[in-house]
Amino acid sequence: MKTGTYNIDLEFSQILDLVKQLPRKEKLRLSRELEKEIVDSKLTSLLKAFKTDELDQATIDREVDIVRAELYAKAKAN
């Protein structure tokens, strides 16, 4: 069986009508796929927002050591 790619213009209401015709199992599958796509999109946006060339691993390691030392000192004082 040969499969191809088809592009058709559908309005939201048409897509909604098609989805309503799907069996429950397929609706759940579609829902999971849409959720995955949204999560991937949000994660990509978040990663882009925090991407920087200003931090290197040595800077991160220094900051981690500072925070650990502060937490250790605080725990020791209590």
Structure description:
- It is a single chain.
- With 78 residues, the protein is mainly α.
- The protein has one domain.
- The protein contains 3 helices and no strands.
- The radius of gyration is 25 Å and the shape is elongated.
- The mean pLDDT is 89.
How would the blueprint of this fold be written?
Layout: H1 12-21, H2 24-50, H3 57-77
Proportion of residues in β-strands: under 5%
Number of separate strands: 0
Structural class: mainly alpha
Number of domains: 1
Order of helices and strands: HHH
Average of per-residue pLDDT values: 89
Main traits of this protein?
elongated, 78 residues, mainly alpha
Produce a short descriptive summary.
By secondary structure, the chain is an all-alpha fold. Helices cover 74% and strands 0% of the residues. The protein has 3 helices and no strands.
